[in-house]
Design brief:
globular, 10-stranded antiparallel β-sheet, HotDog_dom_sf, Thiol Ester Dehydrase, Chain A, 22% helix, 6 helices, MaoC/PaaZ C-terminal domain-containing protein, alpha+beta
Length: 288
């Protein structure tokens, strides 16, 4: 949490904790409070990313299909995820983390990061009122800045508590229709582990069949932000321009071994990702 002196000068934020198997184990072992209470206000945290590791950015870019050079937009989610996990592991966050579902995300690049400069990452978490079915969502707003200048923002939404079957019936909507194909790729069984090596996200549901089954899934699924990154890279390659903003709404998991197809969406600047005939994700993007 941001602290100040009597002269209101910000105290340097602690270093961003690493994302890896150790942090994942802590996430899997955290339990919900017996009776979560309404939070008095938003949870906030501040961390420092000492510098951007250009070698790591290069590995990430090569793994996801980005052209070498600048920091890809979706790379910023990696330090953001570390900040999110560290914040939600605190005692003030009342919900169990194993099984929390990432349902929406938006990344926006505001400025190129200065070389060899620490980046401050500030996060605010709001627990939203329960829906009519009892589902509870958390909204997270994260800002990365350097020297007082905003570098990127990330808006995320997580499902913390699944709702029951009561409440208003869901309105029927027409199934999404694929537009013009932009790209297609097949996810080999090792793709979850390959992404874990560059992201640090070693959640067992993404790794192997046996580890996914330990957490109740019949088969491993690819990381949602892997799908977003692959889509972002493919859009950039097709447009020959960089993506400066990208949103996503995840609608269905993508099992390892699947073939996914990226298509144009229902309007210019929109995209859709299909796994077979099922819509897996959709969103919008802005080109530089």
């Amino acid at each position: 949490m941001l602290q100040t002196t009597a002269a209101t000068k910000p105290i340097p934020a602690p270093l961003l904790p690493p994302m890896g198997p150790g942090l994942v184990l802590r996430v899997l072992s955290k339990r919900a409070r017996a009776a979560p209470v309404e939070l008095p206000g938003p949870l906030t945290s501040s961390f420092t990313l000492p510098a951007i590791d250009s070698a790591h950015v290069a590995r990430y870019s090569a793994t996801l299909g980005f052209a070498p050079g600048a920091v890809p937009l979706t790379w910023w989610y990696l330090p953001v995820q570390r900040a999110h996990m560290a914040t939600m592991l605190g005692d003030a966050f009342p919900y169990r983390l194993a099984g929390i579902v990432h349902v929406e995300n938006e990344l926006v690049a505001h400025a190129a990061p200065p070389a060899n400069t620490p980046i401050r990452i500030d996060t605010r978490i709001d627990v939203l009122p329960a829906t009519s079915s009892g589902a509870v969502y958390c909204a997270l707003e994260t800002v990365g800045s350097a020297g007082g200048e905003r570098i990127f923002t990330c808006t995320s939404k997580y499902l913390a508590v699944r709702g029951g079957r009561f409440g208003k019936p869901r309105r029927e909507t027409a199934p999404a229709q694929p537009g013009a194909a932009i790209d297609s790729w097949t996810l080999p069984p090792s793709s979850g582990r390959a992404y874990a090596r560059v992201s640090g996200d070693w959640n067992p549901i993404h790794l192997t069949r046996w580890s996914a089954r330990l957490l109740g899934l019949p088969a491993p699924i690819i990381h949602g932000m892997h799908s977003v990154a692959r889509s972002c890279a493919a859009i950039e390659a097709a447009a020959q321009r960089r993506v400066s903003a990208m949103s996503v709404r995840f609608t269905a998991p993508v099992p390892l071994g699947s073939t996914v197809t990226l298509t144009s969406g229902s309007a210019p600047g929109r995209y859709a990702l299909f796994c077979g005939e099922a819509l897996a994700a959709e969103g919008a993007y802005t080109l530089d």
